[in-house]
Amino acid sequence: MVTKETVRDPADADVTRADSLAREIFAGVANKWTLLVINVLEQRTLRFTELRTEVDGISHKMLTQTLRHLERDGLVDRTVYAVVPPRVEYQLTEAGQALRSTVNRMCAWTRTYLDHIEAARLRFDSMS
Amino acid sequence: MVTKETVRDPADADVTRADSLAREIFAGVANKWTLLVINVLEQRTLRFTELRTEVDGISHKMLTQTLRHLERDGLVDRTVYAVVPPRVEYQLTEAGQALRSTVNRMCAWTRTYLDHIEAARLRFDSMS
DNA sequence: CTGCATCCCGCATGATACTG
DNA sequence: CAGTATCATGCGGGATGCAG
C-alpha cells in the first residue's frame, strides 16, 4: 500500500532539507576563529577580554562576531552581570562541549602529524 | 659568542616553533573546502571532475587550489596517468585518513545536534 | 568592560579564457 | 580532462570611534 513507482518518500524532502541545513551548519562551524574559540573555552568560563587574549591573533570585532554566532547556535552560554563595568562570561553548552571534543581530536591530529607534514612540504617544495 | 642574559631553555625555541607551526597547520586545514574535500575522499580514489561534482558548490579554481594544498601537506596522493585525455586520480594518504576520521566525527556532531541548533536559532532570532 | 556601527583595504574566491 | 593565468569583485576582517 505504500509505494508506487517513482513516488518519493515524503521524508525525502526532510532529508534534503536536513542535508542542506547540515552543510550550512558544518560550513559555519568549520572556520579558524570559531574552532579556536571553542577550543580555548574548554570546560572553563571566560570573560570577553580573557578570550581576546587567549585566542591569540583574534580582533575585537571577529571575537564579537564569532561569539554571537556561537550563541545563536546554542553552542555557548552568555551570562551578563548587571554591574559596572559590565561583566560578561562565556561558557560552552553541552552541544558546544560535544563539538569541542571533536576539535580536540583535530588538534591532536595536528600534533601527531606535525613532522610528517613538515617533511612532506619540504619534499614538495624541493620539486617544481 | 652566545649571549647570556635571559637564557632560555634551548627546547623552548622548538616548543614555540612547533606551536606556531601547529597553529598554522590547524588554521590551514580548518576551512570549509579543505574539510569537505577530505570528507568526500573517504577511502575512495576520485578524479578531478568527480570531486568537482561531489563537493557540491566548489569552483574549478578552489578545487585545484585545495588539492595542491593537501598534496603539499602530504594528505592526498596525486596520480597522473600519461594518457589522452589526461587522467588524474586523488586519494587520501594515511595522514589524510587520520584527519578524515576527525572530520567524520564533526559531521556526526552536526547531524546529532541539527535540531538542537535549529531550535536555538529560532529562540535566539525571536528575541531582539 | 563590552558591544555596535562605520569606514576601508586586501585577499580569497569566482568567472573566463587559453594550453597540453 | 586537467591545469594555469588573468581579471573583476565581494566580503572578510582590521581600525577606529561612540554608547551603555
Automatic annotation (TrEMBL), chains A, B:
InterPro entries xrefs: HTH_HxlR (IPR002577), WH-like_DNA-bd_sf (IPR036388), WH_DNA-bd_sf (IPR036390)
This protein's record includes keyword Ribonucleoprotein: no
Database matches in Gene3D superfamilies: Winged helix-like DNA-binding domain superfamily/Winged helix DNA-binding domain (1.10.10.10)
Domain HTH hxlR-type: 18-118
Protein keywords: DNA-binding, Transcription, Transcription regulation
The protein, known as: Helix-turn-helix transcriptional regulator
Species of provenance: Catenulispora pinistramenti
